[in-house]
Amino acid sequence: METKKKIVATQNLNFFIISMVEEIAFVVMAAGIGSRYNGTKQLEVFGKRKLTIAEYNIQHAIDAGFRRFYFVIDDKFAEIFHRRLKDFLPPNCKFELIYQKKEESLTKFCNRQKPWGTAHAIMCCGRAVRCNFCVTNADDLYGHDAISSIAEFLRANGKKSQTFANVAYALSKTLSGNGTVSRGVLSIDGDYYLTSIDEVHGLVMDIHAGAIPPKDSLVSMNLWGFTPEVFKLLEEGWHRFKQNGPNIANDEFGISNFIDSAVKGGQCRVKIINTSSQWHGITYQADRALVEKVLGE
User: For 141-151, how does the pLDDT look when each residue is reduced to its tens digit (9 = 90+)?
Assistant: First the structure.
């Protein structure tokens, strides 16, 4: 792709940078089982256009200038993902399917069914992704402003930079009225850089005043911006995870815990980006109704 100079103005980040515009990539994590949903929500269609949630995100991504897409999937769904993406993406876009590895060296004595977690899913992209990239969940609808903001960050950031980004949402706007959820609650400094992530479980819609965490806390919904430098850190983190003797049946190498450790260890910085977008997602079957309403408008 031909490169050209462009002034990138990012209000959320409060700076102006002259950078070389080059290819950026869009990664979708779609290998999760979704046990609480009782179905393969990554492949279910919603709204009047009958698209998957990831495909609605991809529409916003194309508007934001993304042209290369990677789907991290379970290999048993390869045919249907390939067929949908081939029919859905315009000719000027490319896609690649990446299989989240079973890691047989760990599971040879255990019949583990679920994948190894979100950090492991991103690590599996290391041999394919060579440019700055964002990461998304297949079952989270992020909104146009959120995806445009992360695209601007990626274009403004050098490929060798160890400054990453996360688009944050208010906790109160990411809860389900149909059951408990887990969220990565973000702590930030005065310059909007991450200081820690606390993975909090059992959160409910009715958060009362004075609750911990407060309902206006910022949380991560796994809309991340990375440079290729993250892959070395992921490999190192995965090595430590295996050395610590994980519970093979249940433990996960998750992105929140990985980033929390990397930030506290001085291995990277993470810029927190606010967004005007409203998040929507599906954890439970009963969450479908609201998503259908939003996408049917």
Answer: 999 999 999 99
